[in-house]
Amino acid sequence: MINNNKEKATKSTASIKTVEILSIGTELLLGNILNTNSQWLAEEFAKIGINHYFQSVVGDNLDRLNAAVMQSSNRCNLLITTGGLGPTPDDITHEAISACFGVELKEDNESWIDIKNKYKNINRKITNSIRKQSFIPEGATIIPNKHGTAPGIIWSPKKDFTIITFPGVPEEMKYMWKSIVKSWVEKFIKSNHVFTSEIMKFEGISESNLIELIKDLVGSSNPTIASYANTGELKLRVTARAENKEQGNEIIKPIKEIIKSRTDTNYFGNENDSLASIIVYLLSKRGETLSVAESCTGGALASEITKINGSSKIFKGGIIAYSNIIKKNLLGVSEKLLNDKGAVSKEVAESMAIGVRKKMSTDWAISVTGIAGPTGGTKDKPIGLVHFSIIGPKESLSFASNFGNKRKRTMIQQLSVVSSLNRLRLLLLTQS
What is the pTM of this model? Predict the structure, then answer.
């Protein structure tokens, strides 16, 4: 629970109209870690209908942090900070915000007891640097940290402006938001609407072609449509503004159906779907099994499939045939074929698929062989060339893709995984 200082914080808090995020840490500026906290919080704000216009990142510098806080205090009602609450000298968030508003730091006795107990439980020595985590601005409300030692605070240092501080560890921040802060914020939001979003996923179509298909919908103000391109996958976020989530879903539904009808089989699923999860679903529905033979992807295809809960029902296994010896001895690819056509060829891909399907006794098999680079390419077989073969009970398919020699090795591998899964998906849909 929030402690007894709650009344002090809430009395000076008027309705919340806008929120900002201030992420604190030099490691963020240097790119040492990815700032996932801001992304997660932004999605939470959208769910409860709070306006969010700015995000900032500042290093562990007292003057620059002070300046960032003061700037935010002049343009938003609620500032949420992440990071800078730990025991090290560069953890200065509470020190900085106290200095901004001329307030002393005072030790919170309950927090100090909690910190000591946690350190005793892990047999760690308690030092003065650890104790600094219990010091907060006078009048602030403690947000207990169940999963860590550094508590956060809720503090309203001036009229119509509140600061909420979180630790930078995502697990700790998310728990504190869900268990305490979200409900607190909702009480003070001045809004008659919420935002409801749905993610639609596509494969086998470029972003420009997708937008061309739905260009008459993109200009809509409610719902709004935004596209996002990832490696081998395209997303549309359809967002509605409404009085409640149910009404938002009703606004989204007809637009989503129009998009699905125009994109046909290029659309494959929603936010929690992946190509691999769709494959597991389709094969499970048919009562059929799958095996894979991989060369250039080195097991990435099998890994993608086995990430899915329930994949054991359809996936029997795979062979990473990286060398020609393994292709020959385990998959039965003939030495003559390897010599005449080369490991990266339609014929070898087909032989690999036949071999793994027979060895694993599966209904379906996928094989992948290619040149992921950055070396090994030739004029006839450049870096980025990948051959695929898919064999099923009644149908087989062989195809090649040239992903280009400018892409990183890992990207060529990922694109190969996506392409093979998508082609199998399309085959299964035509036979269903």
Answer: 0.76
